[in-house]
Request: fold
Amino acid sequence: MWMLLGFMFILYLGHLYIWAMVVVIQIYMAKELFSLLRRAPEDRFLPGSRLLNWHFYFTAVLFVYGRILSQQLVNTVIYDKFLHRILSAFIKYQMVICYFFYIAGFMWFILSLKKRSYKYQFSQYAWTHMILIVVFAQSSFLVANIFQGIFWFLLPASLIAINDVAAYFFGFFFGKTPLIKLSPKKTWEGFIGASVATVIYAFVFANILGRFQWLTCPRKDLSTSWLQCDPGPLFKPEFHSFPGWIPEWVPSKGISVLPVQWHALCLGLFASIIAPFGGFFASGFKRAFKIKDFGDSIPGHGGVTDRNDCQMVMAVFAYIYHQSFVVPQSYSVEIIMDEIMRSLNLDQQQALHAKLGQILHLRQFGL
Reply:
């Protein structure tokens, strides 16, 4: 209950606080996973190895979140000219700065190699990079979803939670057929029942969330002010009449649906069919290393990683789906001109160039 209430309070505070929550979750996940394969005897002879892991981690943080910033975002919160100049320079040279931070860590690792510890040190180096790719890179998509609108963060996250709860209850009351050997307690009855419940929940909950501008408006700056925007056609109700064979005694003649609810069905299908494999992967990983939980950060629940294994998979899909099927396609002038030129023969292209040249010449003289 305290986790749920805390989560709702952070949602109320807004985008920046949700981003901060995601960063804290990422740090805890990294801490749990960095400690998973460590062996105390080797670490005694390798001073600074833990610090090196965190050096690579915060280099990744600087690279990924530095790219989320832009001049427009900085202008909204930075008024001091000197600080604004520093941040503007960082944004411009961010890739170079992060590259040299990484190279510094790489050189640090090479210089720290010691005899009889090569295998252990290289395994830790590989493990650190796997954490950055599999955990940090995926969870960073959560932040991108937040700034597209809290709706695109909250709906996918809640789908995973509902699917997990529904799978437990359907499996407890109806489960008889084992689903997968990695998780003996998982059953086909629980999996199928949770899938149906998750899809229904996605369709209904999307209608509720889609009616609040605070949740649907994208955040285009780093302020915490209240959001107002045109929600767009996705969040404007459309009335669908029932077919003629519906009995006349039915009080309503149709149903009001937000177009985004159809997208929510796709997210619900993914959350119920594909995302659970993130949990199966985590279960297999824990069995391989003979551990019950990734950590003990949350009393009674294990580690933060145990609570967010499926969330990582879902966050990536939600971002890719939003960018592919929801965000309207935009075309630059260069792309449009290129398409026009491809449809013309050589004489037509020359005539078009001549005409454009005349227009530009006249505009230079204000005609």
